[in-house]
Amino acid sequence: MVEKSYDAIVVGSGPNGLAAAIVLLHEGLKVLLIEGKDQVGGGMRTNEVTLPGFHHDICSAIHPLVLSTPFFKSLPLADFGLTYMHPEVLAAHPLLENDSVALYSSLEETADSLGVDGNRYKKLIGPLVSNWEDLTDDFLGPLKMPKSPVKLAAFGINALQPASWLAKSFKTPQGKALLGGMAAHSIQPLSNWATSAIGMVLMASGHVAGWPVAKGGSQSLANALLGYFVANGGAFKSGWMVNDINELPQAKAILFDVSPRNLLKIAGNKFSKLYKWQLGRYKYGVGVFKVDLALSGPVPWLSGKARKAGTVHLGGSFEEIKKAESLIWKGEYPDNPYVLVAQQSIVDPTRAPEGKHTLWAYCHVPAGSNIDITATIVEQIEKYAPGFKDLILASTSMSAQDFEAYNPNYIGGDINAGVQDLTQIFTRPALRASPYRTSAKGVYICSSSTPPGGGVHGMCGVYAGKQAIKDLF
């Protein structure tokens, strides 16, 4: 039962909304967490969308930052049913014309597999791994005076470069492709500034704590976080899609795990003209198209590395991926797209009936696209795994428009809730003393439209929650 007043209210129960609610709860505050859907989790939901017994992650599937960033790993989530499982190979990148390449949990093993590029890889990623604890507060947070300026500067020299520049420092197709597959997680042209940062952070995080899978599905992480929140006195209300800030109970602090566009719709009448103008200028990126498949067996990859990998990057060489990602931003659909595949069931047998498997695959598409490219994704997988099509028992797809309908924060199918380019990495959603404060006292934004951006790490919510505590309590 919802009461008339709370110390703090958090609207939206994605990873950042859950994190913000828990941070506020830790302060001893009376906190209400509200979710528009019936199911907690935002991007951390799992459902049987193909056949009974096949459990598919709807959005987030593999979690490269969940154990390498400080907040979620600090909570006793195992007590609430959460188990992480680690694939033998973190990410594989098959190459048809050359030997495939892979990211392993071991920095040394990854470097050794790169041959003549091994030393270059260690020089690039090794310092980031060694200084991870010192640097995460600097590059996974709002713009501020760095705690480790010398170490951050050393990271920034490479990280701020376009991935297309950094790739030139590798000699082999494997070294270039590994960087390209990682940098393409940025969902922007690889010629953009700071796309190297995304790739470097993902690779380093793998060496720090792996790329784990939540046993039973990403929903298990959401359920564990909610279980911890409620067990410690938090209040939760699902099935309440907040459309106006005035419909909420009284509270000293209200935090929104929503996109800037939705924040304007819900609370725009509370904001200054300047802040509304800033939110109106916020840039969203391209969308995604996703396919979930129920399979009669494991994917018959030509690459032995891919058969053991939780994540597989498809699309070929660095130059091929660069071309494909550039075309998307021009509103075109490449014939040879970059496809990101997750095969959670190779490490988590609870995802499918015995002997069967699930597969999760998406590629980037122009914003707002409603074109069905299921066949393109299936053909791309078939190219690297002949016989794959014969294993398909059932499939279901989501277009960019479907993603926005599923979650209103995914504007145009943008699962990062805004472009993470150089202009918006640290200042999203607006250039302010604190990106989490709005112009209205007591109203905050805690979504992935704030630093450090997309991913299951909760740090946007952590920083927003701490800002509200500092300001009001």
Spell out the blueprint of helices and strands.
Elements: E1 5-11, H1 15-26, E2 31-34, E3 46-47, E4 56-57, H2 70-73, E5 84-85, E6 89-93, E7 101-103, H3 107-113, H4 118-130, H5 132-139, H6 149-159, H7 163-166, H8 173-183, H9 195-209, E8 213-214, H10 219-231, E9 235-237, E10 250-256, H11 260-267, H12 273-280, E11 287-295, H13 304-307, E12 309-314, H14 318-329, E13 339-342, E14 357-365, H15 374-384, E15 392-398, H16 400-406, E16 443-445, H17 459-472
Parallel strand pairs: 1-2, 1-10, 2-9, 6-12, 10-16
Antiparallel strand pairs: 3-4, 5-8, 6-7, 11-14, 11-15, 12-13, 13-14
Helix pairs in contact: 1-10, 1-17, 3-4, 4-9, 8-9, 8-14
Describe the structure.
The protein has 17 helices and 16 strands. With 473 residues, it is α/β, with parallel strands linked by helices. The chain has two domains: 5-83 and 214-282 and 413-472, FAD/NAD(P)-binding domain, CATH 3.50.50; 84-213 and 286-406, Polyamine Oxidase, Chain A, domain 2, CATH 3.90.660. The protein has a seven-stranded mixed β-sheet with strand order 7-6-12-13-14-11-15. The protein has a five-stranded parallel β-sheet with strand order 9-2-1-10-16, with helices on one face. It is globular, with a radius of gyration of 21 Å. The mean pLDDT is 96.
